[in-house]
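seq:
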Amino acid sequence: AEHQLATYLARKREESILGTCNGTSLFAEAVVEYIGKHGEGRFLDPLLTRFGTTKLRDIQDKDITKFGELKYPGAKASTLVRQLYGPMQAIWNGR
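struct:
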């Protein structure tokens, strides 16, 4: 499951760089756009603090994983999906 998730995230990141959304956008800009469209911002504060000024194209899977290890040490996979990977994916998909 982790490999499938990593593959899916990599594909979405590539889409953000190559065309589905503007890869030069900052993560914070993508969050604002996402919340404007969908109104849901749950679990985004820690991600904004960490990745807010980072360009979408520069956020790599290893950065997300490392952040998760530091922010949620010893967390179950379900917690990481709900509070880290899910919201990050929602930002990529919501643009």
